[in-house]
Write a structure and sequence with these properties.
- The complex is a heterodimer of chains A (295) and B (304).
- Chain A is built from 16 helices and no strands.
- The longest helix of chain A is centred in the N-terminal third of the chain and has 33 residues, at 16-48.
- Chain A has two domains: 2-70, no CATH class; 78-294, Orthogonal Bundle (MetI-like fold).
- With 295 residues, chain A is mainly α.
- Chain B is mostly helical.
- Helix content of chain B is 75%, strand content 1%.
- Chain B has 14 helices and two strands; from the N terminus they run H-H-E-E-H-H-H-H-H-H-H-H-H-H-H-H.
- In chain B, helix 8 (162-190) runs antiparallel to helix 11.
- Chain B is flat.
- The two termini of chain B are 49 Å apart.
- Classes of the chains: A mainly alpha (295), B mainly alpha (304).
- Chains A and B meet through helix 1, helix 2, helix 5, helix 6 and helix 7 of A and helix 2, helix 4, helix 5, helix 6 and helix 8 of B.
């Protein structure tokens, strides 16, 4: 990049210095405007979460709350009916998302390791079969999946919320690709030392799959934190709902206070935003890896 | 243990352990992917009701005929296609344009990427909730539109009018995912060898020329991939439409296929017809993936 930029003035005619300054200015302006436009709804969410309804719906709208109304958060947690069900639903979301993140990483590593480092007949068939399931979007199999859960009597339970997402094909793909480059000599050395295969997996392979495991865990956590369709299907009892399902219920109530609605939105976003700000490289990198899996 | 038995070779033992490690995958994907899709095909030929004690009756293609001749289904197809087309064009153009601009800057690249990406971090339910208030008659959307068009006091009925409801769901989607696809394009552009661009600069090619003659042709694999990803994502949209209708938006114009499957199965309890729609959606997405695979394979053959 730098050499080209150094060379540019030499090749350029006189007015292009001004032109390139102007085009650079324009680029910054467009990027700045785009970033601001994207940020507006987020700023609105944070601001409105501290406002009384009259202030949120004021024309023209003031972006900064006149006097922060922290009671919105209390009402968001207590709910319109005062049962504090949101607390329970936040807990459910945490249990489900964290469990799925953990099982996805462990099971994908297990299967990915088997596919990457062992020779057996039918291995390619197994691999292609698992990859083919990536072509089956969840939306097209949700009804049969729901019937399975009903048959197993797992509605309104953590098991029912978790079971279809214990692992996924993309995770297997990611772990297999990652472990393909794992040095075989280390595995053989462990075998010669008398290490059992399960132990090799736990203390040699799994311990060393940190970056891929982190990418996968964050991806799985986010997907489940966002999952609305599946909880809507398998959960009827309020106590077993997750955050997205609670949001639907809360928003559908006509009496819902707009400020409290935005407080619900803020609370629901805290964990993912905290992850995003601390581990942004796994988010930006994660979407790249994810798209690579689809290539 | 194998060694003590003596008969099993090293290869044999390794093969057995291989099967042990992949076994959970075989069980899981058979049960939760393979069986359900086969079941969806199977159920689509039966008169099957949710919570019904009567055994389902085989009715051949009856469900297909019913679905394909129902106005409700074609309305959903229209709603989905309008949404997909309406979201695809701005998503594609904006994310490509922004990616080109972002990589042209040396400073603050990461900050811009993060800022643009941030809505993609939110849950779709949260995104829909925020926009529900923005689209309120007294909300920001009206104020903003009236400011731009200097038309004070007009309510554009963002959630009440049929076409506006469509536009609103598209807006939410474009806002939420533009940064996500921008990142994919940024990665794709990063894969283009820098030397090609530098050579063009030396040869006196302007920025526009460089974009259309160099970046765009070399970016084709990414372009194909992102296009298909956007389309498939759009076909699966559910949360925004569901939340908006729960809050009183008209169902008809935004009754996308996934929402229709959900309602047909749970509200109408008609699993047969829900399965028909699932199968049709599946085939459409399969076709799109296949088209992408073919396009990228042609690309590879042309190059190599």
């Amino acid at each position: 990049m730098t050499p080209a930029l150094l060379r540019r003035p030499a090749a350029a005619r006189a007015p292009s210095g001004v032109l390139s300054f102007l085009s650079s200015l324009l680029t910054w302006a467009v990027l700045g405007a785009a970033a601001l436009l994207v940020a507006v709804p987020l700023l609105f969410m944070f601001g409105a979460s501290l406002m009384p309804p009259a202030e949120i719906m004021k024309m023209p709208y003031d972006w900064v709350p006149r006097e922060p109304k922290w009671a919105n958060f209390l009402q968001a947690l207590a709910g319109n009916d005062g049962t504090w069900m949101f607390l329970r639903n936040i807990w459910n979301s945490l249990v489900v998302s964290l469990t799925i993140a953990a099982t996805t990483v462990v099971l994908s590593a297990l299967v990915g390791y088997g596919l990457a480092k062992f020779e057996f007949r039918g291995r390619n068939l197994v691999f292609m079969g698992i990859m083919a399931t990536m072509m089956i979007p969840f939306e097209t199999v949700m009804i049969p999946l729901y019937m399975i859960i009903v048959k197993l009597g797992m509605q309104d339970s953590y098991l029912g919320l978790i079971a279809p997402f214990l692992m996924n094909a993309f995770g297997v793909f990611l772990m297999r690709q990652y472990l393909l480059t794992f040095p075989r000599e280390i595995l053989d050395a462990a075998r010669i030392d008398g290490c059992s295969e399960p132990r090799i997996f736990v203390s040699v392979v799994f311990k060393n799959s940190g970056p891929a495991a982190a990418t996968l865990a964050i991806l799985a956590f986010r997907q489940q934190w966002d999952n609305l369709l599946w909880p809507l299907l398998v959960v009827q009892r309020e106590e077993m709902k997750t955050i997205p399902a609670y949001i639907v219920k809360f928003a559908a109530e006509k009496s819902a206070d707009e400020g409290a609605m935005m407080a619900v939105a803020v609370i629901a976003s805290i964990p993912v935003f905290a992850l995003f700000l601390t581990l942004s490289r796994y988010f930006l990198g994660g979407s790249m890896v994810y798209s690579a899996g689809k290539e | 243990m194998g060694r003590r038995r003596g008969t099993s070779s090293l290869e044999g033992r390794q093969a057995r352990w291989g099967w042990v490690f992949v076994a959970p995958g075989i069980v899981f994907f058979s049960l939760f992917s393979l069986y359900p899709i086969l079941n969806a095909f199977w159920t689509s030929f039966f008169n099957k009701k949710l919570l019904s004690l009567k055994p389902p009756r085989f009715i051949g293609l009856d469900n297909y005929l019913r679905v394909l001749s129902s106005e409700d289904f074609w309305n959903s197809v229209t709603a989905t296609l309008v949404f997909a087309a309406g979201a695809f064009v701005p998503l594609f153009l904006l994310s490509l344009g922004l990616a080109v601009l972002v990589v042209s800057r040396r400073r603050f690249q990461r900050a811009f990427q993060m800022a643009l990406y941030s809505p993609a971090v939110l849950s779709s339910a949260v995104a829909a909730l925020i926009w529900l208030l923005i689209f309120d008659p007294r909300g920001l959307a009206n104020q903003f539109a009236n400011l731009l068009l200097s038309s004070p006091g007009i309510d554009r009925k963002w959630l009440a009018d049929a076409n506006m409801a469509r536009l609103s769901t598209i807006l939410v989607y474009v806002w939420k995912y533009v940064g996500y696809f921008t990142i994919l394009f940024v990665t794709g552009i990063g894969k283009i060898p820098q030397s090609v661009n530098e050579a063009a600069v030396i040869d006196g090619a302007g920025p526009l020329q460089r974009f259309f003659r160099i970046t765009l042709p070399l970016l084709k694999p990414t372009t194909v991939l992102v296009s298909v990803m956007i389309l498939i994502q759009c076909l699966k949209t559910f949360s925004t439409q569901y939340l908006f209708t729960q809050r009183g938006a008209p169902l008809g114009p935004i009754n996308v296929v996934t929402l229709n499957i959900y309602n047909t199965a749970l509200r109408d309890q008609n699993l047969g017809r829900a399965s028909v729609m699932s199968v049709l959606l599946f085939l459409l997405m399969l076709f799109l993936s296949w088209a992408q695979l073919r396009a990228s394979r042609d690309e590879g053959e042309a190059e190599g």
